[in-house]
Amino acid sequence: MVSIRQSFAKLGQLAKVCWLCQQPLRLTDVGGFCDYCRADLPRLPPRCQKWRYGHRGPVFGDAWYAACAWHPLSQNLIRQLKFQGRPELAYDLAPLLAAQLTKCYQLSGRPWPDLIMPMPMTRKRWQLRGYNQAALLAKQVGQILTIPVAYGGLRRLHDRGQQHRSNRALRWQNMQQVFHCTRTLKQQRIALLDDVLTTGASVSAAAQVIQHRGATTVDAWVFALTEANTQSD
Ligand SMILES: [Zn+2]
């Protein structure tokens, strides 16, 4: 027979808790965060962040937009999403990114992209993790913004070693010939979507490949900026 204590313990397991402080959410808390943690999220101003990513060679892509800055709170969320097996977190991060993107496009007056392409992983890494967090985010963001998502339109051919341990210059060098675009994108505006942006090398390399297939603009959408030499792959 199940005791009252056991029943309440089971209910507690089912109750949703805040992704950051782990306190039980109230009925009025929406989107997976309590009021305090939601207010503490390290949001970025709704502007292009590409200026942060200098490189000696050409940097491909147009506007780069991110919802959150590098901060222990955003680091915590990305760690849960990628390395602690919590793909369902994408459902609660997507509305935050979509809201930021809406502000970015309204303020800049730039046209919305026609198509979202999630940043791909290699098949080996995908099999190890069991999901591609960028594709999960893209699906939710695409639904909120009513923009179609092209799954599998971009392939990642190599991992080129453990990227998070590469220094900045090596990381740019390693990105040569990493991506392959499987479709023609003539006259289309594309948004590349990833969970994090570290050195900008991956986004630039993918944008170059997409431009070669005829895209007119390639914007980058990421949930958070991160710093080089952190675990981000
Ligand atoms: Zn909280």
From TrEMBL:
InterPro entries: ComF/GntX_DNA_util-trans, PRTase-like, PRTase_dom. Signal peptide: none annotated. It comes from the Bacteria. Belongs to the ComF/GntX family. This is ComF family protein. The lineage of its organism: Bacteria, Pseudomonadati, Pseudomonadota, Gammaproteobacteria, Alteromonadales.
